[in-house]
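Complex 448.
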Amino acid sequence: MDTIAAIATAPFRSAIGVIRTSGPEAFAIAEKVLRFPKNGGLISHGQKRNVTFAYFTQGGETLDECVVCAFRGPNSYTGEDVVEYSCHGGVYLLNRVLRCLFAAGARQAEGGEFTKRAFLNGKMDLTRAEGVMDLIDAEYSSAARVAMQELDGRVGKSIDEIRGDLLATTAKLLAYVDYPDDEIGEVSTDEISEMLQKSLKKVSSLCSSYEQGKVLKDGIRTALCGRPNVGKSSLMNRLAGEDRSIVTSIAGTTRDTVTETVIFGGVKLLLTDTAGIRDTADEVEKIGVDRARKAMEQADLILCVFGEQVSDEDRQIAEEALQYQGKSLFLFNKSDLGQRPLPSWATAPSFPVSAKTGAGLQEVEEFVKSRFAYDFSAETALISNARQYQCLCRIQTALSRALDNLALTPDVIVSDLEEALAAVGELTGQTVSEGVVHEIFSRFCVGK
Ligand code: GDP
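Predicted structure with guanosine-5'-diphosphate bound:
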């Protein structure tokens, strides 16, 4: 392992800029480039970590005054010797400091290389490393909370527990395979069945958390339905309010995919604006209607907006949406123009609202928030990562097969369990291939 260095803060003019170094030469490099005040020093023998003030120098010239944190491996983020320089946050300055570190023996770190080293040195498993990346990427509260529970090891802990159970079951079966005549090694099918079912239940519960984890992390796929001019855009602008942090047309997507994202109440809505739904002979319109249906089918939430007067077309839209029980919400807009009784077909949760005055929108926000709420204080882990979910599905399949094979010889069940354990290893990174590791960490930013 060589010694790596990178600017860890954003490349803008700022109060402070942090440069991170990690590797066997980190301390020696620091000694070369730093000058300490009297009685100062990087880190003394036997000390695990130290914070000190120092001058960053190049050929006798002082480039900056900085605060230096030294961590002696393995007591560091990467598990190696680490030195972090908190300099003044000038773009020119930081690049110059970085070049000095290169001249002193470090090399430029690749994206995610610090966290990759932390993983390779056993400081964290892959699920936690993925949590680090998700937390950096999080743009709103629910995504950050999902990432944090991943980062604090809740997912990793659940998997470790499952791994322990599977190893115990395998050991029991192997004892029998190796010593079939030995009474101690004898296993009862009931006992193995119970052990497998217990593991399968845990895995299935993690698998089924994925839907919610994905929604909280990536956003709620929302189909926005309604005739033209009922006030869909006005409503979205209102709902987004001041939190409207991203409103973009995502490049390269067509009209039948996400057209806008809106953040409100701490969750993200991925909006698909659909054409209306109506019986039509027109070929082009038919395509629009098909797309609207598909958007509804794929959505986690269907927001149907109606205007001051409801028509037959509104009824058709409502009927279509009502096929997706529990997903639909009816918004009767323009309530400022006068109160109207709800039509008889309004059997989904319905809210009179006004995009103009904002009336009724608080209730809509509360409803959506509670509909997708998750109790983060609960001990259970939430899966939000597609790679982890795929590994869990493989564990689930292997365990179900093991249960189906109970009547067969123990070695058949052992081979199913080995398959499940291989997927567990891939999930946590214990037996993951180099390619997968590279793929995961290359998505990180430089300096992390
Ligand atoms: P969309 O085609 O469904 O997206 O509808 P728009 O948001 O473009 O609104 C159509 C028209 O209805 C515009 O003139 C809006 O100003 C008006 N409008 C939207 N919401 C309201 C509302 O709550 N009250 C009133 N009075 N007018 C509204």
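Residues 226, 228-234, 333-334, 336-337, 354-356 surround guanosine-5'-diphosphate (CB under 6 Å).
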